[in-house]
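Homework help board

Subject: predicted structure for assignment chain

Our instructor gave us this sequence and asked us to write out the predicted structure in token form, then describe one feature. I got the tokens but I'm not sure how to describe them. Can anyone check?
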Amino acid sequence: MIDGADPATVRAALDSGDPLPGTRGFAGRLDTEDGSALLVRDVLGRYPCFSEADDPTAWSVDPTDLSDPDPVPAGHVRTPDGDEQVWPLPDPPATDDDAVAITAVRAAVEASTAAVETDGLAVAFSGGVDSAVLAARLDAPLYVAGFPDSHDVEAARSAAAAMDRDCTVVELTHDDLERAVPELAHAIGRTNAMDVQIALPLYLVAERVAADGFDRLAVGQGADELFGGYAKVAKAPDDPRVDADTVRGARREVVTTLPDQLERDVLALRAAGVEPVAPLLSDRVIEAALPLPGHLLVADPAPGEDRGDAERKVALRRAAASWLPDEVSARDKKAVQYGSLVARELDRLARQAGFKRRMDDHVTKYVRSLVD
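My token output:
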């Protein structure tokens, strides 16, 4: 069984070594012509796949099915003899024609979103350019989750109004967090504060989407990594969080973090009852994004401007101008755990439960207390 692609496409990608064979990712068990089988996971790990740590023949796409799950690395095949990388991430040279580069991004996003079936689909909408592109291109209802006074709720409402769209607000409460944390931690196999804070808004909005009768949720995952959405990328080489000495190099560093992030997000959404759809992580979009020059990821700062304040995701914003009002295509957004206020309120709950900030990693300790 292969998630995300048909076996013939995966076999052809193995034969050719093509890391981007025209899919939105894939993972699972592939039967070979000689009668053997191997586990595969695409170059960016857009679908999860696991085997027992001591038995590569026992596998699942859900780690809770296994006693000691070991993820298949992105771009690898796993056999009883071990793991082998078969698809390295491409590293094309920078495009030297800005107009050609932006046209390629626009065409890739158009093709990727046009290929999405909208029956049973909803859109996770935060009001930022990533989710706004999906909202503009997909005929599906919009949902946002956050505490009532959160940035994401206000941004989603104002962006939806500018786009003449309705948006369902899933207002979160402390009870929601306390109930969901152990469920989520079990599903994703993680209890550290950062992963739980990031996944909680996704999990809770997906629960509501599923309750409303939808079985698929379109998400903007991958856009920040591919198009230069992080401050640490903008500040390269002066930000200690990246090793690279250029914006393009820093962008590549954060792209390589996607397999671990996507494993968490896919498992969270599936546990809530929906299947994720990530059009901005299609092979078409990846192929268009990787050759972007640094100034189409992060704009050159104005004289006296801090590099961290320069415009980010330049090429995506220019491409999105075809579909979005200026006020939406130019809008910045906060990371989901902060924009939804989930991080703030989980910290508040931890302190109320006696896990004070002077304690090392107090929110993680609180999460683990709920799981226990």
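Reply (TA_rk): Your tokens look well-formed. For the description, you could write something like this. The first strand starts at residue 2 and ends at 3. That's the kind of observation they're looking for.
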